[in-house]
Design brief:
Layout: E1 16-20, E2 29-32, E3 44-49, E4 52-61, E5 76-77, H1 85-98, H2 102-110, E6 121-127, H3 146-155, E7 161-162, H4 163-170, H5 174-182, E8 186-192, H6 211-223, E9 229-235, H7 241-254, E10 258-262, H8 266-280, E11 285-287, H9 293-305, E12 310-313, E13 325-331, E14 339-340, E15 346-347, H10 348-359, E16 362-367, H11 372-379, E17 384-388, E18 399-404, H12 418-429, E19 433-437, E20 446-449, E21 466-468, E22 473-475, E23 482-483, E24 498-501, H13 505-515, E25 521-524, H14 532-543, E26 549-552, E27 565-570, H15 584-596, E28 607-612, H16 618-625, H17 628-641, E29 648-657, H18 660-672, E30 680-693, E31 696-706, H19 711-720, E32 729-734
Parallel strand pairs: 9-16, 9-17, 10-12, 10-13, 11-12, 13-16, 18-28, 19-26, 19-27, 25-26, 27-28
Antiparallel strand pairs: 1-2, 1-4, 3-4, 3-5, 6-7, 6-8, 14-15, 20-24, 21-22, 22-23, 29-31, 29-32, 30-31
Helix pairs in contact: 1-2, 1-10, 3-4, 4-5, 6-7, 8-14, 15-16
The chain binds adenosine-5'-diphosphate and zinc ion.
């Protein structure tokens, strides 16, 4: 097999090689190559580590920093193609940029324990010759029971599956399947697990593209053949961005190369998987944290062997050992969930561009509301832009209007304005569907005691507990702490005096039920749909009009296509604007624009109503006036003026620990020893906006630097020169996104 890998390491007997282990370590360790062992750079090897064996990757020649007499020997080589050179360089690069430990980054590329074991063989069953799903009799006159009929019916001809899978799909037991095999109606075949990744067919026809779509697709297909480039596919919601980049995917698959598609959340994947299957005949290889371990192992092996042609997944799909990567697509590139906030802190969108550069492959960033970072790169001529300014077919963009809440007559404890109520009534009576958006989970964000004013808060965090009536619990959204509502106030002992303040989606649903008693209503939030299958079920019911109204949080904002949805009501459009987040305005714009994009996706005109107390705010003006570019330019001007990203660099140093005194001591020491360079300002330490999370106190220092300063070089000696006191952790966040 051609692994696309050419550099071979010297493997002279007795030579030393360095091996990087997927552990929180900074550098590879040297090991000796035992007599008779052949290795390449990138080989997966087992090495002794203390008293146990660990699996790692040959990173290069030995570094020679340890007395050769003391080196231990590599124990074995795994039967896998070596980790490609571009991925190894990428691991080094990511570690260098994020200041994470190299072993920690490697871990993301190989953290699938079972994948590294030899593949298991499995027995699968398929129809025996002469038998098909319509057979009325079985070979040798065996009885055809209902259960047996179901098995034959679901198996179809030409397919093989394991007894367990067949039984599950047919609603029977595996022994029925084996019984059919004993009777000669099914044939058993032995397969190694790896061979079962379905192969997409790049030659199937896609839909007929419009002229604008074809022009964009043509450009992407051309780019797909020309090595590294970045294209921003900038198209309004519903313009057919997916169809367009599918053409580029088809071209790359047709050339026999691999494609990685990154999507923000599993919510979108459900819909996307179906569309991919329609276009390419088989489901793609998925990669996300929801996958069962065995499937992850299979998929990982399929990637490293090159059998997995297309992988779609969350951010970690970027770290997989593709051996012949030909294209990277990042859909909804503006989405904040591409930023990983724990472990190795990195932004998968940015790293996708880096990987594209290192692997010399094109990168496509798609969005209806591109990030200022990407737009700025278009302005600077680093990225090319392809625009799809119109919705596909007859669909037109929704009309977005503000509802000035200062002028609405509102009852207390009610959140739906008369204007929104009237519009909802109108849409429902026309047989159309409605969506109400409120980005707040649960019933109410705050519960307080009417007797003494005490607020119920989390014992482990500086945060209020959120009431979730559906689960009958109070929950902390920062640490997951949960408790039932106490009988008496913990502060004044008053009984049953608690009152809910403010709305969450559950409370909004209560109001809707009160105002529209007959409406068929569902809530869509991470509390009501956990799994991709649940999302899929809800989306199907909405699409088939079993639901009149969806009330939901941001998980509802993305990707979904509901033909009869014509009205979107945003309950608290100002919600995301408060707080000191650098990107508050940009994000609110993006989120509300995405939500608005759900309305009127087919023939009927869509309408979006934004309940706001600040209709004159630039974000509301840009949304209602449809002036995205003007908004982005104003946003850019303000960031430039303050030398904020993308016009300056930002890094956060977060000091945390259980012992507040020790945390303060370390943070203050860092503050005192802050580097003094031209063009670098260190702010803080200051308590993080949520000062205590999970019982850990958090202090933050912010480093602001001019664009041409390497913040890594500033941070490395300063931060790593500190030995924090017991239990205190120092984390570095380059290009921070979250300011909680
Ligand atoms: P976007 O990703 O820009 O929001 P999609 O690719 O999801 O847009 O397209 C929106 C809808 O229009 C989808 O249902 C898609 O199948 C449909 N569509 C887009 N382009 C075409 C086309 N050329 N032919 C048929 N259907 C199309
Ligand atoms: Zn908490």
């Amino acid at each position: 097999m051609d692994t696309g890998h050419t550099t071979r390491a010297p493997t002279a007997e007795g030579a030393a090689v360095s091996v990087l282990l997927p552990l929180p370590i900074v550098a590879p360790y040297d090991y000796l190559v035992p007599p008779g062992m052949t290795l390449e750079e990138g080989s997966f090897v087992q090495v002794p580590l203390g008293a146990r064996l660990a699996t790692g990757v040959v990173w290069g020649p030995g570094q020679g920093d340890i007395d050769p007499e003391k080196l231990r020997e590599i124990s074995g080589v795994l039967d896998l193609p070596p980790m490609p050179e571009d991925l190894r360089r990428f691991v080094d690069w990511v570690a260098g940029y994020t200041l994470a430990r190299r072993g920690g980054v490697l871990r993301m590329a190989m953290s699938v324990p079972r994948a590294l074991d030899a593949p298991k063989t499995v027995i699968e069953y398929g129809m025996a010759p002469g038998v098909d799903e319509k057979s009325e009799s079985l070979p040798g006159g065996a009885r055809l029971t209902d259960a047996r009929r179901r098995v034959l019916g679901m198996l179809g001809s030409g397919r093989t599956k394991t007894a367990v899978d067949i039984a599950k799909a047919a609603g029977t037991s595996a022994s029925v399947v084996r019984g059919l095999a004993d009777a000669g109606a099914l044939l058993a075949v032995t397969r190694t697990e790896d061979s079962s990744v379905p192969q997409p067919d790049p030659h199937r026809c896609g839909p007929d593209l419009s002229d604008t779509q074809s022009a964009a697709a043509c450009e992407l297909v051309k780019a797909a053949d020309e090595g590294y480039s970045v294209t921003l596919l900038d198209g309004v919601t519903g313009s057919g961005k997916t169809e367009v980049y599918f053409e580029a995917i088809a071209a790359v698959l047709g050339a026999g190369r691999q494609v990685a598609v990154l999507l923000p959340e599993i919510a979108l994947t459900a819909d996307w998987l179906g569309r991919f299957e329609m276009r390419f005949g088989v489901p793609p290889v998925a990669w996300h944290s929801d996958l069962p371990m065995t499937l992850r192992a299979r998929n990982w092996r399929a990637v490293v062997r090159g059998d997995a042609r297309l992988v779609v997944g969350a951010r970690s799909a970027l770290m997989l050992p593709y051996h012949d990567l030909g294209l990277i697509v990042v859909d909804e590139e503006h989405d904040p969930s591409f930023k990983q906030e724990d472990g190795v802190i990195y932004n998968a969108r940015d790293m996708a561009v880096v990987r594209g550069h290192i692997s010399d492959v094109p990168v496509v960033l798609a969005s209806a509301t591109p990030s200022l970072e990407s737009v700025n790169n278009v302005w600077r001529g680093r990225y090319r832009r392809l625009s799809l300014p119109e919705r596909f077919a007859q669909a037109s963009l929704p009309e977005i209007s503000p509802i000035d809440m200062r002028a609405e007559q509102m009852d207390s404890q009610s959140w739906i304005s008369p204007t929104l109520e009237a519009a909802t009534r109108q849409a429902l009576s026309a047989g159309e569907q409605v969506m109400m958006f409120l980005n707040r989970r649960g019933y109410a964000p705050l519960t307080l005691c009417r007797a003494c004013g005490h607020r119920l808060d989390c014992p482990q965090c500086t945060a209020w507990l959120v009431e979730h009536r559906l689960q009958d619990r109070l929950q902390c959204h920062h640490c997951g702490y949960s408790a039932s509502l106490p009988k008496t106030c913990p502060s004044c002992d008053a009984e049953d005096r608690f009152t809910a303040c403010g709305p969450g989606v559950e409370r909004l649903a209560e109001e809707v039920r009160h105002r529209f008693p007959d409406v068929r209503l569902e809530i869509m939030s991470s509390d009501t749909v956990y799994r991709a299958t649940e999302t899929q079920a809800l989306v199907r019911r909405m699409a088939e009009r079993e639901i009149d109204m969806l009330i939901g949080t941001q998980i509802m904002a993305k990707g979904f296509h509901f033909p009869l949805l014509t009205l979107v009501g945003v309950i608290d459009a100002d919600l995301g604007l408060s707080g000191g987040d650098l990107r508050a305005a940009e994000r609110t714009y993006q989120l509300l624009h995405q939500v608005a994009g759900r309305a009127g996706r087919e023939g009927r005109q869509g309408r979006v109503l934004l309940q706001t107390f600040e209709p004159e705010h630039p974000v509301m003006q840009a949304l209602t006036g449809g002036d995205r570019d003007g908004f982005m330019e104003a946003e850019a001007a303000s960031r430039r003026q303050h030398s904020m990203p993308p016009y300056g660099r930002l890094a956060a140093v977060i000091v945390s620990g259980r012992n507040e005194v020790a945390v303060d001591e370390t943070a203050n020491q860092l503050g005192r020893s802050a580097p003094r360079y031209d063009g670098v300002t260190v702010l803080g330490p200051a308590p993080a906006p949520i000062p205590v999370v999970r019982g850990r106190h958090r202090r933050r220092l912010l480093v602001r630097a001019a664009k041409d300063v390497s913040v890594q070089e500033v941070l490395r000696p300063w931060v790593f020169g500190h030995k924090p006191k017991g239990g205190v952790k120092i984390a570095v966040d380059i290009d921070p996104y979250s300011f909680t």
